[in-house]
């Protein structure tokens, strides 16, 4: 997460990423919490929405393989 006029962005940890039609992204974080504030990286290294969606898809694919 990056905030305009901020020198930091935060590392967020969540139980899972779930689909949601309530947000423009199409997903939301379940039980999100700030793990730490990062001042060691520039804002442009923050994950993009497509990167988060890709991570969600990869994780769901791995879970499907474990349960079958």
Written account of the structure:
The protein is an alpha+beta fold. Helix content is 28%, strand content 28%.
| CATH architecture annotation name | Beta Barrel
The largest pleated sheet is described as: 2 strands, antiparallel
Superfamily (CATH H level) name: Nucleic acid-binding proteins
Under CATH, the topology is which?
Answer: OB fold (Dihydrolipoamide Acetyltransferase, E2P)
Quick overview of this protein structure:
With 68 residues, this protein is of the alpha+beta class. It is 28% helix and 28% strand.
Strand-helix topology:
Elements: E1 9-13, E2 16-19, E3 27-30, E4 33-38, H1 49-67
Antiparallel strand pairs: 1-4, 2-3
Can you tag this structure with a few keywords?
28% helix; alpha+beta; two-stranded antiparallel sheet; 68 residues; globular
